[in-house]
Amino acid sequence: MFNKPFRVKSNTPIKGSERKKLKAELQKCYPTITEEDLVLAIPNKEEMSVMKIETHGGEIVTAHVVGKKPIVFHIRDKLYPTVYLLWVLPNKLVHYFTTWNEVVPKFSNGADLMLPGIIVKEEIGLRAYGRLNKGVTVAINSNTNSAAVAVGITALSSEDMYMAGRRGKGVEILHCIGDFLWQVGTKESPPELGPPGCQPEADSKDIPPQNATASSEEQAESSETKQPEILDTNRESVSEPTKLSTEAEAEQKNPQETMDDLLNYCFFKALKTTAKKIELPVLTSNFYRLHIVPSCPSEKTLDVKKSSYKKLSKFLDVLKKEGVIEVKEFTKGVESISAIRYDHERVRSFRVDINDKQEQQPVLEKVGEMEKYLPPVITRMYAVNAVCLPLFTPTYRKGTNLTTQQIRQYLTEYVRANQLQNATNPSQVTLDPILSDVVLKKGEVVPSLSWEELMNRIQTKLSTVYEMIFPNQTAPVIVKGELEPVEITTASRAGNKKVTLISGLETYRIDLDEFARRCQLGVAASTTITSSPAKKGQVVLVQGNQIGFVGNLLIDEYGIPKQFIQGFDLKKAKSKK
């Protein structure tokens, strides 16, 4: 996660209320933590700030820093402790796995902890790896020091780790000593806490196996070439020929093949369940979000990027060539599934896994329900361009997006550092050569400007961008220029019948099928989804003049700010006239 350099998008001090909020979140995530522990972890008099980080992979992470040490970080709304926090509160927050000291340096290179690298007492049996579920936060320490050296999540449940026979990934490493998040802090070494008490004596001087750690690329390679080892024949049921055969076949599949199988399974399961009577055409993105993803079994995670297809469009192209579906581009760049052959051999022969049928009924019961839409958080920002770059160098580089607050804070610091505030009139700022080049027009000679005028001129010179953060999505969507609004218009059709046209919904990721159904139920009028040569994307058409209903629906139910809805005032303007 942090084994490569990341970009700090912002680092702002936080108030006492945020400090209390973080303490409450820590107690909620880790119920064993006491008030005394919280005082040690977050001293009241220590300076505290929150960093917004964009990782090398484009993921947005927030980290809380206390006294120059990052103590926790949030990924996808889940809180994880750093090694700095675990050193303050050792053996209190999470379960620890122990590995050999020689393995530790490999974590900072991006390696995960494989099952052969975990030191356990085999004689304990099924509970050798504890009592953990998959995806649980854990810490890693070494056989020479019980202080944490890494933080990660379990790749398997404890029982599955035991049954895997020391093969495969044990812990996915998120953060470790030596990575770039650790380097944000004081870069101190772990405290000497003595060897872990759980360490088996027989293993204390053993050399770690070569497959103790592996990067994702190494795992993919090894799974293709490595033959499965024979498991412990003393374990019940594992030594049965059928079990060994099944596990051998699973071991020989690389992660891409496994994800390919899961993607195909979810697609055909959707055709048998939620998409059995779907209205066509449907956007491919909506079909994936509303039908394929919900069809994934709860114990698995579907990710197209980890399959051999890499993109949804390539996966659908394969199904199109096989004759399962038809895909058309009604609008340039926007693909829709226009037909599904339910009589195709692959569809007819598909059967839902017997172990997955328990989830089948609840999914069917939700078919037809209107999914709750959560609007994006929209922030108007300003990008540093070539014109303003001399003013913001070296703190910000070209292309950096800044909020109004960040610009105002930077400008204040710049003026104070260069002593540009007028001594007799503090509301005026003297323009130095850099400010003059940035804010003054050609031929304009002005010795000073008011703070507000200076701020307005700088914002005018910067490039406008909008940041859209959608729920359950870590990386924000950046829109350059003005954000396209949802446009509501009326038109006349044959017989002078009025219709209402709504365009621009796709910018805000509003499901067109669901929106059309809500309009149909709300005004008791027919609705259709069409493409418009004059508009980018597709348009929802509602019979009659429904501007008032559509506008209120977007604001009240979908939470779209009124400033991003164009045409809603038409109804009021006509009534006044």
TrEMBL record:
Residues 486-558 form the SUI1 domain. InterPro entries: EIF2D, eIF2D_N, eIF2D_SUI1, Pre-PUA, PUA-like_sf, PUA_eIF2d-like, SUI1, SUI1_dom_sf. Gene3D superfamilies: 3.10.400.20, SUI1-like domain. Residues 223-238 have a biased composition (Basic and acidic residues). Residues 377-464 form the DM2 domain. GO terms for molecular function: RNA binding; translation initiation factor activity. One of its GO terms (biological process) is formation of translation preinitiation complex. PROSITE patterns: PUA, SUI1, SWIB_MDM2. Pfam families: Pre-PUA, PUA_elF2D, SUI1, SWIB_eIF2D, WHD_eIF2D. Keywords: Cytoplasm. One of its GO terms (cellular component) is cytoplasm. Residues 188-256 are annotated as: Disordered. Belongs to the eIF2D family. This is Eukaryotic translation initiation factor 2D.
